[in-house]
Amino acid sequence: MEDRVEALLAEMTLAEKVGQTHMSANLDPTADHELIRSGGVGSSVLASGATAGNERDHGVRVSAVNATQRVAVGQSRLGIPLMFGRDVIHGHQTVFPIPLGLAAAWDEDLVFRTARLAAAEASAQGVSWTFAPMLDISEEPRWGRVAESLGEAPVLAGRLGAAMVRGFQGDPDAGTVDAGALVGAGSGGIGTVAACAKHYVGYGLVGGGRDYETVQVGENTLRNVHLRPFLAAVRAGCATVMAAFTDVDGVPMHAHRRLLREVLKDEWGFDGVVVADWDGVGQLVRQGVASDLRDAAAQAITAGVDIDMVSGAFAAHLEELVEVGDVPLALVDDAARRVLRLKVRRGLFENPYAPATSPEPGADPLLSARSEPRTEPRPESRRLAREAAVASFVLLTNNGILPLAANPGRVLLTGPFAREGEALLGTWALDGRGGDVASPASAISARLQGNAIVDDGRFSDRTLHLVRQADITLALVGEHPSRSGEANSVADLGLPAGQLDVLRAMAALCRPLVVVVFTGRPLDLGEVLDLADAVLIAWHPGVEAGPALIETLFGDRSPAGRLPMTFPRSVGHLPSSTLARPTGRPIEAASDPVAGRYLDTLVVPRLPFGFGLTYTSFSYGPLQLSASEMPLNGGSIEVSVEVTNVGERTGREVVQLYLHDVVADVTRPLLELADWVILELAAGAVGTATFTLTPAQLSYYDRSMTLRIDPGEAVVTVGRDAANGSSARITVTG
Ligand code: NOJ
């Protein structure tokens, strides 16, 4: 493979090499014909604009993609195929729960299967590259992009992210992907897409949760927290990495040589492609570190950016920068080599075209694109979407009202989401269509027929009349997806305007009330938790939202999710997460008036990380350790706990292992998720969750940025969430 890349590179002119580093938006076979034919562009992002996740576009025009590719392959001097990138974030045509919801399932296999299906659907349309997984660690729910993330814990995001990478790219251990089996006969093709770990790195630390805001963080925290999921993705073979829009302590990531070239490429040995974010190279000028686009191009290629997404800085200036000696040719060679390697590895030279359509040469591609029939989610795909949605639901409170009785009487379905379809797809669902979504209204009507009362969705005081007529009210509230995702930060974590007022009025009628919250972020739900009989977090669940929800509320299935982010008490409590590290005056010292607590409120989260109920309950036995000492070299300890299903239904428990290194070279998290085990237990059954603890799980970067493991004491905690567990001390011996 490397020989093939080098042979190609040897044939290329400087202009052609620069072309491989340039990504255009929505390349058009006619308007961009000359650019493509001359080898002046290497890839195309299929997106409606700079914040594409918030907008609907026309979908992928497969015949236009193929026509564009035909110019590159058939008419350019070297016939190098183009890559077509698209944000396939949580499904393609079959939309799954938003990533934060998928993370709530804590299920690597599920994430793998959703990514594999998304890749098969996308690649059938000529997409060869997705910009996912998003691995930004954030303890900042005001930031709308937490919806796209896999939660606050590096180990959870890392493992789920690696599973997503394998799903998108094809698991090397699982052999080739049978795309036909996934998306239907006749699709064939590569069936996989290149993945992209983003946004490298520290984006989740945007000040005040304001999108794109500057970031203050040191390299040690980056290494011990924020870089970890990226390393996991790179180790899983992730083909590309996207630079973050933000700076890190004054140096914008698109110019951050230390983190891109020295850490990612040199230290980790990443031989894939670093792609800029949308206009990220150009933004160096607005960030005030580059005087103009030429300067921006020089800084970005030097830092290690290989592909310039849409700013045009590389295309306009790299050639001249090399010719006058301001940028070494070796840097452009390195970038072009990485892009070619990606294309060879992905099999693009053998399979450049989308298999779904094969337009006749000469046909007007745009005309035929407009009349292309859209593929609807297949029944098998919907089954997976329903499974994923149920697995993502997190039950927060339940006084026994759930699951609903088979014949519950008259059930009112109300709230702004009762009749919704499209809004339940969530942010970044570019190829999902509202018409494909099975709404809650249709699902409840199908189930209860005449006993279902479906409100008009206005959720006003008129609704109270309906509440009086019903035996049970299901209120579907929360955030529209346009309130989460990119560029959508909020300063208040309460429910959107007016919703709490209506819920209060409903609760005042003292009728049974179940509240379902659709959301892209942790919310401040304090009062809702008190006034409702049950509260279920449903995130934005995707195409099977309605049936998944109604089946769960009626107990055909049990809610299975656990919070992948802490739910804080209020905005005033932020940051509030499991990333907290010890201070010199710990807050456990309740009698200490200067212990760092608030004067006016409790400091502990409203709902801890890892929290979630289901329709049964579990009791935990004592923590068992196979030894209390673990030799640093090659040692391990079996940590186990017996868990009993003490309820009357089968249930799924996520048993969680947390670690704290008592004495280290730098402050270490008080309670860091290290591992988890999922137990499925029938009523009355007893299971054992066993963890094999190794010294590597206590490794961390020290003051000199060296990875190390210390001999000494560590606290091991096993429990149902970050606030409920049993602890024991172990000693790592030298
Ligand atoms: C900007 C976003 O930050 C990024 O996540 C996305 O992949 C690109 N736009 C491309 O749409």
What would you note in describing this structure?
This protein has 734 residues and is an alpha/beta fold. It has 22 helices and 27 strands. Helices cover 29% and strands 18% of the residues. The strands form 7 sheets. A 6-stranded mixed β-sheet has the order 11-16-15-14-12-13, sandwiched between helices. A 5-stranded parallel β-sheet has the order 4-3-2-1-10. α1 (2-11) crosses α15, α2 (14-20) packs antiparallel against α14 (313-323) and α2 (14-20) crosses α15 (329-345). The longest helix has 17 residues, at 329-345. The two termini are 44 Å apart. Bound molecules: 1-deoxynojirimycin. 1-deoxynojirimycin binds at residues 45, 47, 52, 87, 131, 198, 277-278, 486.
Secondary-structure topology with pairs:
Layout: H1 2-11, H2 14-20, E1 22-25, H3 33-37, E2 43-45, H4 62-75, E3 83-86, H5 99-104, H6 108-123, E4 129-130, H7 154-169, H8 179-183, E5 196-200, H9 219-226, H10 228-235, E6 240-243, E7 247-248, E8 251-252, H11 257-267, E9 273-275, H12 283-286, H13 293-303, E10 308-309, H14 313-323, H15 329-345, H16 365-370, H17 379-392, E11 394-398, E12 411-414, H18 440-448, E13 452-454, H19 463-469, E14 472-478, H20 499-508, E15 513-518, H21 526-531, E16 534-537, H22 545-553, E17 618-620, E18 624-625, E19 629-631, E20 637-645, E21 651-661, E22 672-681, E23 686-693, E24 700-701, E25 707-708, E26 712-721, E27 724-733
Parallel strand pairs: 1-2, 1-10, 2-3, 3-4, 5-6, 6-9, 12-13, 12-14, 14-15, 15-16, 19-27
Antiparallel strand pairs: 7-8, 11-16, 17-20, 18-20, 20-23, 21-22, 21-26, 24-25, 26-27
Helix pairs in contact: 1-15, 2-14, 2-15, 6-7, 6-17, 7-10, 13-14, 17-22, 18-22
This protein binds 1-deoxynojirimycin (NOJ).
